[in-house]
């Protein structure tokens, strides 16, 4: 039991939030916060060690005094909520190790001495807010700091000289300027991208004379040694280099403006944008409601200027097994909105040559340079496996990337399992469901070889990312994206980040993919929509908990989808698959089966 005073503190904290009555309805006085029922409260040996209040749409104020009364608290997460205003006084929480505020609307400067008494801090994630002003210099005092994520804010000024042994670092997309301190130059250029005035290693932009104030001027001794003639030569060379850089940038920006214009048809069609706000993941009818339209029709600018100037080069084909197409073909295609997922919006384009494709506008991949993106896409384009959806083409712009795949008329496993309960659903017999489970396992086995060095060879495995061929052979999509996506967005939109591994310990390994596989298996066998797919956990069935309880009470048979009842002879095999799903969703990743073992066990299940 947690001390009663700490229960009171949490209830005080709850009061400080808006709308918490519903969202934190599980926080009630007569039940211990460590009973396992209080949403977001993490305990170890009945000591409250973490508050993981992510993805809950919380807003209002945060009663930091109440939090400071919880003595064992080490992790505080408010990731992806709606808090606004200046940073709360978290600097009162002297023993905190992880402070995660990513994706809120916090704004304004952070006091320079904010971190001075937070000596235990290891992880600071403030990305995706509106923090401004200088990055606090007191960060340099945090000896234990391992992860610092400040990307996508409005920080300005110079980077402090951080000398700690930081493992994960990102300040991209701010307004920082000046040289990158030597201790930080070990991080890749993507960690600094989107700051127009940063210079030095690892950016390709050397610090020129305009930043001379950041460097010590040559000492009189050096002056004497080389003489003033040497200084004049350096100044002339620098001057010429600056002129050359300006000409280069002018030419580049002209080119970029042209690329932007070329793509105006697809990316700036205001009507398409408007309807793409609607999230329509399950019913196919929803796309029909939105209606059909020729994408090129609604934008004069696009059908005119874009059409005349663009060539096939605007779309880069990485796999031409279905034939080649260009931007013009896409512009003339009839478009239907399919949905607006976490990584971007998707629409179907039916081209005149009979080929229908899905164009996915990927948001928040702006960390990636064109060359790296091109190399990744070409690697994806070379994949040939029965259970993997190979992309056809891509389009790269700085602010937006498009990803084109073949349209699969049967839709996703999510749609077939839970969508309009039409004929497709009744076709989901036990043999078909087992075929789907085995196909998913084979696709994963392939990805685990092809992307074996990735932390997350899939990373976004869920039933809407399992498409079905006409014969129900499954095809995995949206795989291996993690290295391409801005971390703050990955946290919000990739399903691996919704696993207990990440929610409780902010750690991700290949075991997170195993957990996601487990959810799909339980979904296939129970026919239930997993509550895990909702970011606030509301709606659907908590399949993991339901299966765990039923197995411990030896009521497994009740879990099988009633629509599979007439496959009674295969009951043992269904229970065998259910047990694999349960093993994959074991909450402790160390005790969870490995992907290889899970795949082997799925392959063993007989009809
Ligand atoms: N190639 C495809 N053929 C047919 N339907 C597709 C195809 N690709 C995606 N879809 C469907 O279009 C809808 C929108 O897809 P999208 O990938 O944008 O979002 P999502 O899968 O719901 O979420 P996320 O972005 O997290 O993967 C989904 O229902 C998906 O199953």
Explain this structure to me?
- The structure is a single chain.
- This protein has 607 residues and is of the alpha/beta class.
- 34% of the residues lie in helices and 16% in strands.
- The protein is built from 19 helices and 24 strands.
- A 7-stranded mixed β-sheet has the order 2-3-5-7-9-11-13, with no helix packed on it. It has a 7-stranded antiparallel β-sheet with strand order 16-18-19-20-22-21-17.
- Strand 19 and strand 20 (356-362) form a beta hairpin.
- Helix 13 runs antiparallel to helix 16 (510-526) and helix 13 (430-450) packs antiparallel against helix 19 (595-604).
- The longest helix is centred in the middle third of the chain and has 43 residues, at 220-262.
- The two termini are 48 Å apart.
- Mean pLDDT is 81; it is low at 209-236 and 253-313.
- Bound molecules: adenosine-5'-triphosphate.
- Adenosine-5'-triphosphate binds at residues 281, 338-339, 341-343, 346, 358, 360, 405-408, 411-412, 460, 464-465, 467, 477-478, 493.
């Amino acid at each position: 039991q947690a001390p009663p005073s700490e229960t009171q503190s949490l209830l005080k904290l709850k009061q400080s939030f808006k709308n918490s009555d519903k969202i934190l309805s599980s926080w009630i006085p007569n039940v211990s916060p460590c009973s396992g029922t209080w949403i977001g409260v993490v305990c170890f040996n009945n000591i409250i060690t973490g508050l993981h209040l992510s993805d809950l749409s919380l807003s209002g104020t945060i009663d930091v005094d109440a939090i400071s009364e919880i003595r064992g608290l080490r992790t505080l997460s408010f990731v992806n909520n709606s808090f606004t205003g200046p940073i709360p006084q978290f600097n009162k929480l002297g023993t905190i190790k992880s402070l995660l505020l990513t994706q809120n609307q916090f704004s304004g400067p952070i006091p320079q001495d904010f971190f001075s008494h937070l000596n235990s801090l290891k992880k600071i994630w403030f990305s995706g807010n509106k923090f401004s002003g200088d990055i606090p210099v007191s960060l340099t005092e945090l000896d234990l700091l391992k992860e610092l994520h400040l990307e996508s804010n409005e920080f300005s000024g110079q980077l402090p000289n951080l000398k700690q042994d930081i493992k994960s670092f990102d300040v991209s997309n701010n307004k920082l300027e000046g040289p990158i301190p030597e201790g930080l130059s070990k991080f890749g250029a993507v960690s600094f991208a989107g700051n127009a005035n940063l210079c030095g290693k690892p950016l390709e932009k050397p610090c020129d004379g305009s930043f001379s104030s950041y460097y010590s001027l040559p000492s009189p001794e050096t002056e004497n040694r080389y003489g003033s003639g040497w200084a004049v030569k350096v100044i002339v060379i620098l001057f010429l280099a600056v002129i050359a850089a300006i000409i280069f940038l002018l030419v580049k920006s002209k080119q970029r403006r042209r690329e932007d214009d070329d793509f105006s048809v697809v990316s700036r069609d205001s009507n398409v944008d408007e309807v793409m706000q609607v999230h329509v993941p399950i019913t196919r009818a929803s796309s029909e409601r939105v209606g059909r339209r020729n994408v090129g029709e609604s934008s004069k600018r696009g059908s005119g200027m874009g059409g005349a100037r663009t060539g096939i080069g605007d779309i880069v084909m990485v796999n031409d097994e279905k034939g080649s197409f260009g931007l013009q073909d896409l512009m003339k295609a009839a478009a239907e909105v399919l949905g607006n997922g976490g990584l971007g919006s998707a629409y179907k384009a039916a081209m005149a040559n009979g080929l229908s494709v899905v164009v996915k506008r990927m948001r928040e991949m702006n960390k990636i340079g064109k060359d790296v993106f091109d190399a990744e896409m070409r690697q994806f384009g070379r994949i040939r496996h029965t259970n993997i959806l190979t992309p056809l083409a891509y389009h790269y712009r700085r602010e937006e990337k498009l990803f084109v795949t073949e349209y699969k008329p049967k839709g996703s496993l999510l749609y077939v399992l839970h969508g309009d309960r039409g004929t497709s659903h009744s076709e989901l017999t036990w043999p078909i469901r087992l075929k789907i489970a085995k196909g998913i396992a084979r696709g994963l086995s392939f990805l685990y070889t092809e992307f074996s060095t990735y932390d997350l060879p899939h990373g976004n495995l869920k039933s809407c990312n399992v498409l079905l061929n006409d014969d129900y052979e499954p095809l995995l999509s949206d795989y291996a994206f993690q290295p391409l996506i801005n971390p703050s967005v990955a946290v919000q939109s990739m399903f691996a980040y919704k696993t207990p591994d990440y929610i409780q310990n902010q750690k991700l390994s290949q075991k997170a993919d195993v957990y996601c596989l487990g959810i799909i298996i339980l979904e296939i066998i129970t026919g239930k929509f997993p509550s895990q797919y909702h970011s606030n956990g509301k709606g659907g069935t908590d399949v993991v908990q339901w299966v765990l309880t039923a197995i411990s009470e030896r009521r497994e048979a009740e879990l099988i989808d009633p629509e599979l009842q007439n496959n009674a002879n295969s009951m043992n095999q269904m229970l065998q698959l259910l047990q694999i799903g349960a093993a994959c969703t074991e909450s402790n990743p160390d005790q969870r089966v490995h992907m290889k073992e899970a795949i082997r066990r799925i392959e063993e299940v007989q009809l």
